[in-house]
Design a protein that fits this description.
This protein has 2 helices and 35 strands. By secondary structure, the chain is mainly beta. Strands 13, 14, 15, 16, 17, 18, 19, 20, 21, 22, 24, 25 and 27 form a 13-stranded antiparallel beta sheet that branches.
Length: 385
Amino acid sequence: MDAPQVVKQAYNINNTNYLQLRAIATLLNRTDAQFNIGWDGQYAVIEPGKPFTGTVTGSKMQNTKNVRNSGTKFKLGDEVFSFSDARLINGDTNYIQLREFAQKLSGTASQFNVYWDTALNQAIIQPGAPYTGTKYEAPVTILEQFKENGGVLPDGDYYMQINGKFVYPVSGGRYWLELKDKRPEKPFNIRLIGNSEDRGPEYSIGYDGTYIMLPGSVEGEQLQSTTGKNPHPWRINLYSAFGTIRDYSNQKLIVNAKGASKANGTLITGVSSTGSAPEHAKITFLVEAGKGNNNGNGAATSVQVQIYPTKTTYKLGEGFDTAGVKAVIKEGSTEKDVSEKVTFYTSKTVNLTQGRPFTTTGKKVVEIRYNGEKIAEYTIVITKD
């Protein structure tokens, strides 16, 4: 969860925490892992995906030896079962291990992951993630450059980069295009809508059900989305190492990222340019590796961190340690270990190489990257002694 929370309806037995199921429901309510729990006269019924409508049993938390194994029957869909390590504590209220409950709900509409973060000294809950018992990061689809010198860009879904940064649609009433390190949540959809011998191929560029336009085909305007049903026309030219996008109506205007700089990125604008393309107008078109171009149906290739580095706490002056990390590339049902190819960064720009000593104390978020793109992150702590 994003913010630390304390569950009061819990007991600790031999260093294992047991929580009221209703307390777990309260904790996860209004998250991707919410569920309802009720009694039908015979079973405690768990309803995945539904908001919790009950209340937590008002048990008084106190030291007690009144602990019994619970034989309560639970119902999840058509399955009736008992938890293997449920307890009745200080009465007839059920207390359950959070991990066992997470395992049971994995694969349902209320699945969540829970793991212990040594650096933060906290139990971390990841609503919506399958249970692994360790930090879970969803696989990140690997991108590859579409390369074709000349010709027509096939209809399909593309990410775009300029100088290694993504063209990113920032939401704000409409989408405004800027340059960012972060990959957009969705690709742009590009389609050929015409082709003139004199004016070249004509394309539409869409994002999230909208079209991208240059207002009035005027120089200096920022590219943005429109709610109009008719697409704004663009000309796309392909070269050996890059492509360019020009306004189709006024082809002196080239899509360029050398706009006004802001804290959250560089603005994507239309700039008057003839002849060779400026560096900030050279666009790389990227597609999902493995799926091919033109909306291929193959399985996408993805990379995932399965195990994080073992060491998460350091003393001032100690060197960074990558031991224990495991990252894999998934191509369909096969996996390939690429642990030696990932890199580590903190503060966005500081490359944490093996053995690099820490010179400052505190908590640091470490990014794990593959081919320069972030695929996961974790927290480390550096202390004085």
